[in-house]
Amino acid sequence: MKRIAVLASGRGSNFQAVIDAIADGRIPAVCCGLVTDNPSAYAVTRAEKAGIPVFIVDFTTFPSKDAYEQALLRVLNDLSADLYILAGYMRIVGPNIVHRLKGKMINIHPALLPSFPGLHAQRQALAYGVKVSGCTVHFVDEGMDSGPIIVQASVPVMEGDDEESLAGRILAEEHRCLPAAICLFCEGRLEIRDRRVSVLPEPGDRSRTGRKIP
Ligand code: GRF
User: Fold this and answer.
1) For residue 135, which atom of ligand 1 is closest to its CA?
2) Domain count, the chain
Protein backbone atom coordinates (compact mmCIF):
# COMPACT_ATOMS: atom_id res chain seq x y z
CA MET A 1 0.00 0.00 0.00
CA LYS A 2 1.25 3.48 -0.89
CA ARG A 3 1.20 6.27 1.69
CA ILE A 4 -0.44 9.48 0.54
CA ALA A 5 -0.68 12.85 2.28
CA VAL A 6 -3.05 15.69 1.42
CA LEU A 7 -2.44 19.44 1.75
CA ALA A 8 -5.58 21.56 1.89
CA SER A 9 -6.39 25.08 3.10
CA GLY A 10 -10.18 25.24 3.16
CA ARG A 11 -13.42 23.37 2.47
CA GLY A 12 -11.68 20.13 1.50
CA SER A 13 -14.29 18.62 -0.82
CA ASN A 14 -11.49 17.19 -3.00
CA PHE A 15 -9.88 15.76 0.13
CA GLN A 16 -13.25 14.16 0.93
CA ALA A 17 -13.36 12.64 -2.57
CA VAL A 18 -9.96 11.07 -1.83
CA ILE A 19 -11.10 9.81 1.60
CA ASP A 20 -14.19 8.24 -0.01
CA ALA A 21 -12.20 6.66 -2.84
CA ILE A 22 -9.80 5.05 -0.36
CA ALA A 23 -12.72 3.83 1.77
CA ASP A 24 -14.44 2.11 -1.14
CA GLY A 25 -11.26 0.61 -2.57
CA ARG A 26 -10.81 2.82 -5.65
CA ILE A 27 -7.41 4.06 -4.40
CA PRO A 28 -4.98 1.42 -3.10
CA ALA A 29 -3.39 3.64 -0.45
CA VAL A 30 -3.53 4.82 3.12
CA CYS A 31 -3.87 8.51 3.88
CA CYS A 32 -1.15 9.19 6.45
CA GLY A 33 -2.01 12.82 7.08
CA LEU A 34 -3.80 16.04 6.30
CA VAL A 35 -1.45 19.01 6.34
CA THR A 36 -2.94 22.48 6.50
CA ASP A 37 -1.76 26.06 6.81
CA ASN A 38 -5.20 27.05 8.13
CA PRO A 39 -6.30 25.74 11.55
CA SER A 40 -9.96 26.55 10.87
CA ALA A 41 -10.15 24.76 7.51
CA TYR A 42 -13.18 22.47 7.23
CA ALA A 43 -10.76 19.89 5.81
CA VAL A 44 -9.55 19.43 9.43
CA THR A 45 -13.03 18.30 10.51
CA ARG A 46 -13.18 15.90 7.56
CA ALA A 47 -9.82 14.40 8.58
CA GLU A 48 -10.92 13.99 12.19
CA LYS A 49 -14.13 12.25 11.13
CA ALA A 50 -12.10 9.85 8.98
CA GLY A 51 -9.48 9.23 11.68
CA ILE A 52 -6.69 10.81 9.62
CA PRO A 53 -3.89 12.56 11.57
CA VAL A 54 -3.89 16.37 11.17
CA PHE A 55 -0.73 18.46 10.97
CA ILE A 56 -1.26 22.19 11.30
CA VAL A 57 1.51 24.46 10.09
CA ASP A 58 -0.14 27.82 10.71
CA PHE A 59 1.40 30.32 8.29
CA THR A 60 0.47 33.27 10.51
CA THR A 61 2.66 32.05 13.37
CA PHE A 62 5.93 32.16 11.38
CA PRO A 63 8.20 35.20 11.06
CA SER A 64 8.81 34.64 7.34
CA LYS A 65 7.75 32.55 4.36
CA ASP A 66 11.14 30.83 4.58
CA ALA A 67 10.58 29.79 8.19
CA TYR A 68 7.10 28.54 7.31
CA GLU A 69 8.42 26.51 4.39
CA GLN A 70 11.16 24.96 6.52
CA ALA A 71 8.59 23.83 9.08
CA LEU A 72 6.31 22.56 6.31
CA LEU A 73 9.14 20.58 4.73
CA ARG A 74 9.95 18.96 8.09
CA VAL A 75 6.33 17.83 8.46
CA LEU A 76 6.21 16.51 4.89
CA ASN A 77 9.50 14.64 5.30
CA ASP A 78 8.40 13.12 8.61
CA LEU A 79 5.26 11.79 6.93
CA SER A 80 7.45 10.04 4.35
CA ALA A 81 4.56 9.73 1.94
CA ASP A 82 4.90 8.27 -1.54
CA LEU A 83 2.65 11.02 -2.87
CA TYR A 84 1.75 14.54 -1.66
CA ILE A 85 -1.52 15.94 -3.00
CA LEU A 86 -2.30 19.65 -3.17
CA ALA A 87 -6.10 19.65 -2.97
CA GLY A 88 -7.13 23.27 -2.56
CA TYR A 89 -3.85 24.21 -0.88
CA MET A 90 -3.93 27.95 -1.42
CA ARG A 91 -0.22 28.82 -1.20
CA ILE A 92 2.53 28.62 -3.74
CA VAL A 93 4.87 25.81 -2.75
CA GLY A 94 8.44 27.16 -2.63
CA PRO A 95 11.19 25.90 -4.95
CA ASN A 96 13.04 24.02 -2.21
CA ILE A 97 10.05 21.79 -1.41
CA VAL A 98 9.15 21.41 -5.10
CA HIS A 99 12.71 20.35 -5.90
CA ARG A 100 12.86 17.80 -3.07
CA LEU A 101 9.47 16.28 -3.88
CA LYS A 102 9.74 16.31 -7.70
CA GLY A 103 7.57 13.58 -9.18
CA LYS A 104 5.90 12.98 -5.80
CA MET A 105 3.62 16.01 -5.60
CA ILE A 106 0.45 16.65 -7.62
CA ASN A 107 -2.07 19.48 -7.76
CA ILE A 108 -5.68 19.87 -8.90
CA HIS A 109 -6.54 23.04 -10.80
CA PRO A 110 -10.04 24.15 -11.85
CA ALA A 111 -9.28 24.95 -15.50
CA LEU A 112 -7.96 23.25 -18.62
CA LEU A 113 -4.28 24.12 -18.28
CA PRO A 114 -2.30 25.79 -19.73
CA SER A 115 -5.29 28.14 -19.89
CA PHE A 116 -6.10 30.16 -16.79
CA PRO A 117 -3.40 29.26 -14.25
CA GLY A 118 -3.36 30.92 -10.83
CA LEU A 119 -6.20 32.17 -8.70
CA HIS A 120 -9.87 32.48 -9.75
CA ALA A 121 -9.50 30.19 -12.76
CA GLN A 122 -13.27 29.93 -13.24
CA ARG A 123 -13.60 33.74 -13.18
CA GLN A 124 -10.79 34.01 -15.72
CA ALA A 125 -12.50 31.45 -17.99
CA LEU A 126 -15.83 33.32 -17.87
CA ALA A 127 -14.16 36.68 -18.49
CA TYR A 128 -12.32 35.29 -21.51
CA GLY A 129 -15.53 33.84 -22.92
CA VAL A 130 -14.42 30.24 -23.47
CA LYS A 131 -17.19 27.74 -24.28
CA VAL A 132 -15.42 24.79 -22.65
CA SER A 133 -13.51 24.67 -19.38
CA GLY A 134 -12.67 21.89 -16.93
CA CYS A 135 -10.03 20.68 -14.53
CA THR A 136 -6.47 19.43 -14.63
CA VAL A 137 -4.48 17.17 -12.33
CA HIS A 138 -0.75 17.68 -12.83
CA PHE A 139 2.62 17.08 -11.24
CA VAL A 140 3.97 20.13 -9.45
CA ASP A 141 7.03 21.86 -10.88
CA GLU A 142 8.68 25.22 -10.15
CA GLY A 143 6.17 27.18 -12.23
CA MET A 144 2.60 28.27 -11.51
CA ASP A 145 0.26 25.37 -12.39
CA SER A 146 2.71 24.41 -15.12
CA GLY A 147 3.83 20.83 -14.39
CA PRO A 148 3.28 17.70 -16.49
CA ILE A 149 -0.42 16.90 -16.97
CA ILE A 150 -1.83 13.58 -15.71
CA VAL A 151 -5.61 13.83 -16.22
CA GLN A 152 -7.98 16.47 -17.59
CA ALA A 153 -11.74 16.61 -17.97
CA SER A 154 -13.84 19.20 -19.76
CA VAL A 155 -17.21 20.75 -18.97
CA PRO A 156 -19.33 23.09 -21.11
CA VAL A 157 -19.67 26.74 -20.17
CA MET A 158 -23.41 27.43 -20.31
CA GLU A 159 -25.23 30.58 -21.29
CA GLY A 160 -25.92 32.50 -18.06
CA ASP A 161 -23.20 30.77 -16.04
CA ASP A 162 -21.70 32.71 -13.17
CA GLU A 163 -18.55 31.85 -11.26
CA GLU A 164 -20.46 29.71 -8.78
CA SER A 165 -22.40 27.63 -11.31
CA LEU A 166 -19.32 27.03 -13.45
CA ALA A 167 -17.21 26.18 -10.38
CA GLY A 168 -19.83 23.66 -9.26
CA ARG A 169 -19.85 21.92 -12.66
CA ILE A 170 -16.04 21.79 -12.69
CA LEU A 171 -15.90 20.59 -9.07
CA ALA A 172 -17.93 17.48 -9.92
CA GLU A 173 -15.22 16.58 -12.46
CA GLU A 174 -12.44 17.39 -9.97
CA HIS A 175 -13.94 14.86 -7.57
CA ARG A 176 -13.70 12.21 -10.30
CA CYS A 177 -10.30 13.15 -11.78
CA LEU A 178 -8.30 13.56 -8.57
CA PRO A 179 -8.99 10.04 -7.25
CA ALA A 180 -8.40 8.65 -10.77
CA ALA A 181 -4.98 10.32 -11.01
CA ILE A 182 -4.01 9.22 -7.48
CA CYS A 183 -5.03 5.66 -8.31
CA LEU A 184 -2.83 5.66 -11.44
CA PHE A 185 0.11 6.93 -9.38
CA CYS A 186 -0.44 4.34 -6.65
CA GLU A 187 -0.62 1.56 -9.22
CA GLY A 188 2.76 2.72 -10.59
CA ARG A 189 1.23 3.48 -13.98
CA LEU A 190 2.53 7.03 -14.54
CA GLU A 191 5.73 7.64 -16.43
CA ILE A 192 7.03 11.21 -16.79
CA ARG A 193 9.25 11.97 -19.78
CA ASP A 194 10.17 15.64 -20.21
CA ARG A 195 6.80 17.23 -19.64
CA ARG A 196 4.67 14.40 -20.98
CA VAL A 197 3.04 11.85 -18.72
CA SER A 198 2.36 8.42 -20.16
CA VAL A 199 -0.30 6.26 -18.58
CA LEU A 200 0.89 2.67 -18.65
CA PRO A 201 -1.68 -0.04 -19.35
CA GLU A 202 -3.26 -2.04 -16.56
CA PRO A 203 -1.43 -5.28 -15.90
CA GLY A 204 -2.86 -7.80 -18.38
CA ASP A 205 -3.86 -5.12 -20.92
CA ARG A 206 -1.42 -5.39 -23.82
CA SER A 207 -2.64 -2.46 -25.93
CA ARG A 208 -0.46 0.65 -25.58
CA THR A 209 -2.39 2.89 -27.91
CA GLY A 210 -5.88 4.21 -28.28
CA ARG A 211 -6.76 3.90 -24.62
CA LYS A 212 -8.84 6.57 -22.98
CA ILE A 213 -7.14 8.20 -20.01
CA PRO A 214 -9.68 8.24 -17.14
C1 GRF B 1 -10.89 23.43 -6.05
O2 GRF B 1 -11.63 24.03 -7.08
C3 GRF B 1 -9.47 23.22 -6.48
O4 GRF B 1 -9.33 22.91 -7.83
C5 GRF B 1 -8.86 24.57 -6.22
O6 GRF B 1 -9.45 25.00 -5.02
C7 GRF B 1 -10.71 24.37 -4.87
C8 GRF B 1 -10.69 23.64 -3.56
O9 GRF B 1 -11.92 23.07 -3.24
N10 GRF B 1 -7.43 24.49 -6.23
P11 GRF B 1 -12.03 22.04 -2.04
O12 GRF B 1 -11.31 22.68 -0.84
O13 GRF B 1 -11.36 20.77 -2.46
O14 GRF B 1 -13.48 21.87 -1.79
Assistant:
1) 4
2) 1
